[in-house]
């Protein structure tokens, strides 16, 4: 297409982003800049969305500069920028931009509340929710969803009930399946698995795979193997090709020492042909994304990475840190469990960050799965030893590790 119109460029950007081709969208954006294409608010919003999905903080900051240069000042792009800063681990910048905006619509308030929710800033999000009411900016379905998600990940059961009841009594907002899914999560994560089960059966929707998955995960955490089996059976019907569900059930059995059922669950996974997603962690350094998997060997700095990791473990032993071998659910000797846990992808990404990034900036790591208990404990102790701030974004939330503790309060 030698002579692309502005509509053609916009369509390409939107198509890439909607189909999850975020890297391709950013490459297209750079080409558009080189060709001097005039960018619209719609186009810039799509590119910001790509940056947010990839958590590219440098590109996000550059896009902010482009928006200012283009003279765009509307709520539409401001909300996108608030969101991208939060998703890139820069919650302070996100709030600074939010506070700077004089005229804020509900979309901007939602973006900031969502950012606080992802970063476990519970009280800040609750204060914003109350301010919305004071200013007569009425919450919508997205606002309630963010508040329920916040309560779920912070273990705030009574607060979760409060916001859910507000939603039910709000005549301007229709509760949807996502709200009920969040409430099931609120109850399950707090150990109220039977109450979560009852809500699944009395709600005005058919339970989704997400709901059954949430209940199964809660049963794993609270060793409710009977209810876990029921939830797993529902999941296998709804998502027969999702290997993660089989692994979750296997982990429930492993946590209770039922190795016979573990083998049966893993055999079923193998026979079914379902695929388990491999864990990956990535970190940005000098404008480049570095990706790690467990036991990584291909990275050009891998020798230095492993040496740094050994150095950290050596320092940890001085303060009697013990690896949480119960987090490895293989039926092997304890020494082997320790070795398997030692080289998880987020630990390798952290070691790379320590040898690659200046000591005065946070180390921000992203992971495509939930961080395990041992890696969570490791990050807390490593933050204390190195006197650094680590920010880890897993599938649940942002974890801010500083001075030996985590912002999630060990609840995730």
TrEMBL record:
One of its GO terms (biological process) is RNA modification. Pfam families: DYW_deaminase, E_motif, PPR_1, PPR_2. This is DYW domain-containing protein. Gene3D superfamilies: Tetratricopeptide repeat domain. Residues 324-412 form the DYW domain. PANTHER family: PENTATRICOPEPTIDE REPEAT-CONTAINING PROTEIN. One of its GO terms (molecular function) is RNA binding. It comes from the Eukaryota. NCBIfam families: PPR. Coiled coil: none annotated.
